[in-house]
Amino acid sequence: DAPWPTEVKLEKVEAALDAAFSNPKGMTAAFVVTWKGRLLGERYRDGITMHTPLESWSMGKSLTATLLGTLMQKGVYTLDQPAPIPEWQEPGDPRQEIRIKDILHMSSGLRFRAPQDPDYVESLGYPDHLYVYTDAGNSFHWAATRPQEWPPNTIGRYRNSDPVLINYLVRLGVENNLQEDYLSYPQRALFDKVGVRDMIMETDPTGNFLLQGYEFASGRDWARLGNLYLQDGVWNGERILPEGYAAFVSTLAPAWKADRRPIYGGFFWINGDGGFPIPHDAYFMAGAGGQYTIIIPSHDLVVVRLGHYKGAPEGGEDLNKALALLMEAVPGK
Questions:
Q1: Is 149 within 8 Å of 110 (Cβ atoms)?
Q2: Confidence (pLDDT) at 51
Q3: Could you read off the pLDDT of 41-82 as tens digits, one per residue?
């Protein structure tokens, strides 16, 4: 093994690991820290190992952006092109104005009802945001047939419609453009290349990946994906994502900027409001119940925290303590 890097304070890293698990009510299951691609430390709850796939919820949205990025690198799509969704191709359909980057920015403008809507009422039926998990059948077709509510790139809303649509584009690109097998594409194009070994991705009844939030992966798997972004999409000398794609996903989305919410990029959250005690250049994958893969370019750090949904409040407090200690452990650039 390589010697411990002299720039990194070992005692602070160990203290961060302790802090991540300090409150049993936080129910933290996995905590992984890497620096410049090197594993600095990891710790797991009893019964959990480095290979245990854990429920990761909406971190799958960032995985969705990554799979789209592999197709962009292959020349299948560009960010600025109108999204070639088959259901939108009738003459005069206003959804033809929606660009791929509008969808990645969670600003497609489609009507997609969710329980968190200010005007949500149960009498209108089961919310679309959840229906794509439970009974939509072909979830891609369901999302693609929702009507336009606002012009694209004007309203930023966190809704499952947009990652479902990007997953639709992934399937179309793999099957129609590359003429390859869809279900094995993530393994071949991404996981095998970066060493992800324990990822489990679920589908709807028609075989469409439900990566808006239905996947399981180990802490190390997420750390590898985080490091792919830390390295601007290059792994072992091979460019997997387009040059500058990491900058795109970590830049504040225009529609979110317009209403003064500096928190969302391209299927990644950003630390624009200082919600985490780390630099503002940090951006992260996030899933319900306190699942995080945090990328901190100014410190060459990737931090993964996974845990039980019920422990999210206390687990979040422990995560903040751990992050503060890691800022003391690792020098900035």
A1: yes
A2: 98
A3: 999 999 999 999 999 999 999 999 999 999 999 999 999 999
pTM of the model: 0.97
Rounded Cα distance between 93 and 83, Å, is 12
Q: Using DSSP, state whether 72 is helix, strand or coil.
A: helix
**Which amino acid type is present at position 130?**
L
Q: Which uninterrupted H or E stretch holds 206?
A: none
DSSP symbol at 5: P
pLDDT on residue 186: 99
CA–CA distance, 107 with 102 (Å, rounded to integer)? 5
Give me 188's structure tokens. Answer: 């071949």
Angle made by CA atoms 206, 208, 214, in degrees to the nearest 5: 120
Structure tokens at 81: 């092109």
Exposed / middle / buried, residue 324 (Cβ in 10 Å: 0-12, 13-18, 19+): middle
| Tokens, residue 159 | 């809704």
Q: Which of 310, 307, 256 is nearest to 44 (CA)?
A: 307
Residue with tokens 């200082």: 274
Q: pLDDT below 50 — which residues of the chain? A: none
DSSP string, 127-185: -HHHHHHHT-SSHHHHHHTSPB-S-TTS-----THHHHHHHHHHHHIIIIII---STTH
**% of the chain beyond a pLDDT of 70:** 100
Dist. CA 9–CA 4, nearest whole Å: 9
pLDDT value, residue 119: 82
Contacts of 100 (CB under 8 A, 6+ apart): 68, 77, 78, 79, 80, 81, 82, 83, 166, 169
Per-residue confidence (pLDDT) for residue 76, from 0 to 100: 99
d(CA 105, CA 80): 12
Residues present in the chain in total? 333
Beta strands in the chain (DSSP E): 28-35, 38-44, 54-55, 200-201, 215-217, 234-235, 238-239, 269-270, 283-287, 291-296, 301-307
Residues 301-322: tens digit of each pLDDT:
999 999 999 999 999 999 999 9
